């Protein structure tokens, strides 16, 4: 895991503002919890509940309930479900948090509105997974003026630095890894000509931008033919629709399909099946995806996907570390890259070198999939 520690005067200032400015709302929340608990009929249950709340609050470090606003992208993919679940598990009531969760349904206007509502609510921290990477500076300035620290997860914000930390993936490296694997795989299989169709993610999302940039860099270097590259919006329906149209427009002309997430790949597989195109380990078309949630890994083990490049959705525990660090007035890591692996069905490309770093390709087994958290 790459971790970058940066001097955090700005974080300390924001944290100090937050501690001074938000104490009363936390106190109110704690008082409400106590009052509700006192009216519970079952005294034993009351004691247990109070003890659990106390322990949870102590675990959380400050003794107060922290209110966290989380503006999530939406619910477009298995990856997203895992990301949401991870945040809800970490920022639970039992752990001493009051999580205000907004599913923004892939709508940037809704996401900006959600952040403004969190400011009005005077939450203690705001977590944003930005649908797109631009258009953020004004609302982040509003967060800063309100003294509310913002933590960005997963995707990046490219037009503002008014947040205290970011935890997420190196999307360009994911794209490069996919390209390097494809080169080695084609060589190992004796495939000399690659005619590629790409199903991109949401336009303007840093996940799309980075994966496209990384993969295209290898494609250009190797002189591959990218026939087309269109957005499937990171959804199964989107992947299916794009692939249906590709099957008509490029009938018999392609031998690689790159899907920028698992769910698009599920849609693309359905479309190819319907069009009578064979794909996967024993098929005519190499198909890969990004994310590596359990269902996709199972498809890969079963030979329907040739390889899957992981995007790790479990950022929430690291975000909690940052929040607890800020609460304790400590310096925190301001840029954390999550760990990611690469998976394949066949044992013919043992490792790849990405930007000078050797990365092992994990050959899938049922044990790996069964042990997967999401
Ligand atoms: O930002 C991460 C990407 O967004 C994941 O690849 C995808 O599944 C999700 O929708």
Strand order of the largest sheet: 8-7-9-10-11-13-15-14
Bound heterogens, unique: alpha-L-arabinofuranose
Q: Report the mean per-residue pLDDT as an integer.
A: 87
Share of β-strand residues: 15-25%
Oligomer class: single chain
Run of helices and strands: EHHEHEHEHEEHEHEHEHEHEHEEEEH
Shape: elongated
Rg, Å, rounded: 23 Å
- Runs in which pLDDT lies below 50 for 5 or more consecutive residues are 1-62
Helix segment count?
Answer: 12
User: Which class do the helix and strand fractions yield?
Assistant: alpha/beta
Number of strands: 15
Main β sheet profile: 8 strands, mixed
What is the CA–CA distance across the termini? 20 Å
Question: Approximately how much helix is present in the residues?
Answer: 40-55%
Task: List the topology elements.
Blueprint: E1 3-5, H1 9-38, H2 43-59, E2 66-72, H3 78-90, E3 97-103, H4 108-121, E4 125-128, H5 137-145, E5 150-154, E6 165-168, H6 171-189, E7 195-200, H7 206-222, E8 225-231, H8 236-249, E9 256-259, H9 262-275, E10 286-291, H10 294-301, E11 307-310, H11 316-327, E12 333-337, E13 342-344, E14 351-354, E15 357-363, H12 366-370
The structure holds alpha-L-arabinofuranose.
Would you kindly provide a written description of the structure presented here, covering whatever features stand out?
α6 (171-189) packs parallel to α7 and α8 packs parallel to α9. The protein is α/β, with parallel strands linked by helices and 374 residues long. Mean pLDDT is 87; it is low at 1-62. Helices cover 46% and strands 20% of the residues. The longest helix has 30 residues, at 9-38. Alpha-L-arabinofuranose binds next to α3 and β10.
């Amino acid at each position: 895991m790459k971790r970058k520690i940066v001097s955090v005067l700005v974080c300390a200032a924001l944290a100090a503002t937050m501690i001074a400015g938000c104490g009363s709302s936390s106190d109110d929340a704690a008082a409400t919890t106590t009052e509700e608990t006192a009216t519970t009929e079952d005294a034993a249950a009351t004691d247990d509940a109070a003890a659990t709340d106390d322990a949870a609050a102590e675990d959380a470090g400050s003794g107060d309930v922290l209110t966290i606003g989380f503006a999530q992208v939406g619910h477009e993919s298995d990856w997203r479900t895992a990301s949401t679940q991870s945040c809800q598990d970490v920022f639970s009531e039992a752990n001493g948090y009051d999580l205000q969760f907004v599913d923004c349904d892939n709508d940037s206007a809704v996401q900006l509105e959600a952040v403004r509502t969190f400011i009005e609510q005077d939450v203690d921290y705001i977590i944003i997974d930005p649908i797109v990477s631009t258009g953020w500076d004004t609302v982040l300035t509003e967060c800063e003026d309100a003294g509310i620290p913002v933590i960005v997860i997963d995707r990046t914000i490219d037009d503002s630095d008014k947040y205290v930390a970011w935890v997420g993936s190196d999307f360009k490296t994911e794209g490069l890894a996919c390209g390097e694997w494809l080169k080695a795989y084609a060589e190992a299989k004796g495939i000399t000509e690659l005619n590629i169709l790409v199903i991109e993610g949401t336009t303007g999302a840093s996940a799309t931008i980075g994966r496209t940039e990384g993969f295209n860099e290898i494609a250009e270097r190797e002189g591959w033919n990218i026939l087309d590259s269109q957005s499937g919006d990171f959804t199964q329906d989107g992947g299916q629709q794009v692939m249906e149209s590709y099957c008509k427009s490029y009938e018999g002309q392609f031998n690689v399909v790159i899907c920028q997430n698992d769910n698009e790949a599920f849609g693309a597989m359905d479309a190819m099946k319907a069009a009578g195109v064979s794909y996967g380990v024993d098929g005519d078309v190499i198909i890969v995806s990004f994310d590596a949630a359990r269902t996709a890994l199972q498809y890969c083990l079963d030979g329907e996907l040739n390889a899957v490049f992981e995007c790790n959705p479990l950022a929430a525990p690291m975000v909690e570390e940052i929040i607890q660090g800020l609460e304790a007035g400590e310096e925190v890591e301001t840029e954390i890259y999550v760990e990611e692996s690469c998976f394949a069905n066949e044992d013919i490309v043992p490792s790849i070198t990405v930007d000078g770093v050797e990365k092992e390709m994990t050959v899938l087994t049922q044990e790996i999939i069964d042990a997967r958290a999401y």
